[in-house]
Amino acid sequence: MDAEQLRILQYFEKSLGYWEMLVSVVACDEAETGVERQSRETTVAQVTPDGNAADTLPHPWTGISSLSSQLFGQAVRLCRVYRQGITNPTGRASSLLTAMQRIDEARNLEERILDLDFGSAAHLGDTGDTRTPRSHLVLVAEAYQLAALLQLYITFPDLVSLRLPHERNLNQAEDVPWNKWIVPLALRLVNVLEQIPPESGSRMMQPLLYICAGAGLRRDSSVAIDTAFSGLCILRPATPSGMKDGQVDMMAYVDQIDVGADEDATDEHTPGTAMDVDEARNFINARLDLLKRTLHPNPIIVTAQLLKAVWAAYDAEPAGSTSVHWFDVMEKTGLRSLFG
């Protein structure tokens, strides 16, 4: 196989990987998770020896990192399978063992996602699209990374417990300290998406990312949200702590999310309230309205309806309860599409 044939093969492998990622959100096969799934990963989505996860050439669907979108698909697929087991328990010992295996898979997947580094993207040439500079694709890759972590933390509270050793042991989904961990991460994801113009050629990758961000926007007016490290700055770009060679060092960023949660706010970093969540929700709705005019409208309409249903379910919960999962809402309402 010559170089040109290999390039074409890699192009279609990445396209297939993107399709599988989209399908993983609305359908899943339990046999397609874990080691079995990893053994089928395409050879084009690999981390280089120096740790870079950026592709040699950008792809119109997967951007500058097919590995980032691939790991996101694995995270969503694992979360769906695990959530199905939680909501439809069989009561058998094998089910408990399977659940424990899923938690281990989630922990391993979290580490792989945190290790993603897109530093080599700085050396990529012109994308050939004036509406889609390289910086947009780097932001999309970071957004997939954040979205994957967000889904894992929402679904597997044990992962949050390991990151918050000073908190009590978290055994159930409703124990996750959303205001200290999940909401700040969701606000950071919103901030990243905010920096990508709606007319960017990467906009077809964004609906699913808006769903993931919206899934982390749970309002609790009685609790202040720790936004000290969320980077949220609606309609204004922000630079989070934890930078390396101009790119976000995700491991350092995640490790410091809860820093200062119990400290007094300063003028520079003022903790937010439910207003931050409302602003982020409004921003997502506004962006979806714009995307309806430039993309096929039906999936965008379903996206907006799904988020509206998820937020309504969140807001209807008793104070302090976080038992509703957005996958459950999607299953109950049937609001699903190929969000991309």
From TrEMBL:
Q: Which domain of life is it from?
A: Eukaryota
InterPro entries in UniProt: Fun_TF
UniProt KW keywords: Nucleus
- One Pfam family this sequence matches: Fungal_trans_2
Protein name, as recorded = C6 zinc finger domain containing protein
Which species expresses this protein natively?
Emericellopsis cladophorae
